[in-house]
Amino acid sequence: MGISCQRLIKSFGEPPTVIIKGIDLNIEDGDFVSISGRSGSGKSTLLYLLSTLDLPSSGSVMIDGQSPAELSVDALHQFRNESLGFVFQFHYLLPELTALENALLPARKNNNVDAKTHVNALFELFDIQTARDKLPSQLSGGEQQRVAIVRALSMKPRYLFADEPTGNLDSVNSKIVMDILKKANKEWGMTLILVTHEPDYAAMAEKEIFLKDGVIVNTAS
Amino acid sequence: MFFLAIRHLLSRKRQTALIFLGISMGTMMFAIISGLQLGMREFVVDRLLSNTAHIRISARDQSVDKDEMTRRFYPQGEMISWLSPPSGKREEAHILYPQGWFDRLREDPEVVAYSPTLNMSVIISKADTRHPAVLVGVVPALYEKVLDISQYIQQGSLDVLKNSGNRVIVGNLLLESLGARLGDTIMVSSGQAELRPLKIAGVLSLSVEDVDKTLMIASLNDVQQLNKTPGQINEISVALVDINLAQAMAGAWALVSRDKVESWEEVNASFLQIFVFQDIVRITVTTAILVVAAFGIYNVLSIIVNQKRREIAILRSIGYPPSMILQLFLIQGVMLGFSGALFGLLVGFGLNLYIETIELNVHIGSGNTLIISFAPSIYIMGFAMAFFSAILASLLPALAASRLTPIDIIRSEI
Ligand SMILES: Nc1ncnc2c1ncn2[C@@H]1O[C@H](COP(=O)(O)OP(=O)(O)OP(=O)(O)O)[C@@H](O)[C@H]1O
Ligand SMILES: [Mg+2]
């Protein structure tokens, strides 16, 4: 069913500054889409609109066949819990929980015990088994971001949103993270929407979106 | 959200401990102050009730009334102005129709017992000294059913008054000031010329100074003879099944009688006034402590909510709805309130147990230790106060946390 939007407009403030200026977009299930553009061009804003975190000023977003604006608060959060995964530039791990507890936080909402094996496998796959019982403060930046990605993947979401996930990492760690994201898309069939500054990473996508002042200037496939 | 709430609390142990102690302090103080005050109060009320009936029916003075005199002497309604208005008492106050009361009291299912008495002021002469006293004439069998007097009789027993034999039971302090002993005979006068010899056949002590210094109990017959009013009584003491009904029943009876009908609360109104004042002090002190503790909860939780903004954002993005964010912070306040209140009450309870054993240089009742109340109501009330102020104090920060939107937080972080 994918994600689609029509005449998407988002403005902030009073008098309103229009940041997203009427975007139409169609993303199929299993797609890998990159969004790039200059700082301030509206990349993050578009990502939040597509991923239910924010609501448009006008226009519509459909994700997985439903409109986030029309879902009840609880249904919306349940949808995020089951079907969406987020990776941000900052990892946002909870400092008082161990890496494993952090990664299991989405599963904990509905006492999903099956997630544990899956999460353990991901820790192994991403080569961070030794980090499992450590607190975030005891981990390196790269390890922290990998734990955050395990958290995003823990519920086997259908859609994965990443906002400059490598923005804070060195090139080695950036490559590790990108490999994981590509694997999630190619091998596990997750729809991946990636906001990035890096032309190399943007070019890995099947569909590249360039934003300029809130409009799509070029979509390469 | 319990799991996370506990982790939050544990991650800031010192703040948690401080708030916990603040709340504990509040409930502990409440338990101790209340225990002392209510203990003393139970003691005093118990003593009051040992010489006050639940309801007291007493005779009204038959005073001379100016308007009534005017009507009697000038029935035509002339305009009269008295230079010196008539005043004074017409006769000794007594209950006019005791049998009517007895019949009513016997039939009332709420009445356990009643006891007619004749109370009079007397003067005791011993050698060259004179002592004022209050002589109460009782029917022992009825009297002891209304007032639990026998436990306060130190020597002798109420039975000695059974047959009129000019015997008397005397308050211990009165006995002391008379310099008399059990078995002595004292001369008692109603104030008129006649002296009547009464034999001291018992000693009582209520540990209430005013009473022990003046009270004498004799048989009703003897007192009626001394007073030269055979068959008269001026008071009926009534014991009820439910002491809490006293006020209402006294009110109802007063409507249908010329006699004065008072509940024990009315008789002891000035005492009970002190209790009200004590209550105010106790509640105020405790409230002050709890307000400080609640303010602590409010402050710390507000700070935590602010520090945890990014975590709130991530929780929302992984599917925790605002209601669960609210829970996360509310649970922290509730746990602090619950455990702090419980701990404080336990410590208060323990300290009360200890205080109860401290021996003092004063006599309180039969012992020399403070009397402490362990009434469950103290603990229930203390707990409720602390618990609800903790909930109230955490509600505002928790609501604020639940209203944060993930997007605003994420944006303000970058
Ligand atoms: N809540 C807001 N209120 C006002 N202006 C906002 C708000 N959110 C975003 N903007 C503005 O919208 C514009 C686009 O922001 P956005 O974060 O989408 O850019 P971006 O392309 O992600 O940039 P970067 O590469 O720096 O992350 C910016 O000029 C920003 O100042
Ligand atoms: Mg951005």
CA radius of gyration of chain A is: 17 Å
| Number of discrete helical segments of chain B | 15
Judged by helices, strands and strand pairing, the structural class of chain B is alpha+beta
Number of individual domains of chain A: 1
Shape of chain B: elongated
Unreliable stretches of chain A:
none
In short:
The complex is a heterodimer of chains A (221) and B (414). With 221 residues, chain A is an alpha/beta fold. Chain A is built from eight helices and nine strands.
Please write out the topology.
The complex is a heterodimer of chains A (221) and B (414).
Chain A: E1 3-12, E2 17-27, E3 32-37, H1 43-50, E4 58-63, H2 73-83, E5 84-87, H3 99-103, H4 105-109, H5 115-125, H6 141-153, E6 159-163, H7 171-186, E7 191-195, H8 199-203, E8 207-212, E9 215-220
Parallel strand pairs in A: 3-7, 3-8, 5-6, 6-7
Antiparallel strand pairs in A: 1-2, 1-4, 8-9
Chain B: H1 2-11, H2 13-51, E1 55-58, H3 66-73, H4 98-107, E2 111-126, E3 129-138, H5 140-146, E4 153-155, E5 167-171, H6 172-178, E6 185-189, E7 195-204, H7 209-214, E8 215-219, H8 220-227, E9 235-240, H9 246-255, E10 260-263, H10 264-267, H11 269-307, H12 309-317, H13 322-355, E11 359-364, E12 367-369, H14 376-403, H15 406-413
Parallel strand pairs in B: 3-8, 5-7
Antiparallel strand pairs in B: 1-9, 1-10, 2-3, 2-6, 2-9, 4-7, 5-8, 6-7, 11-12
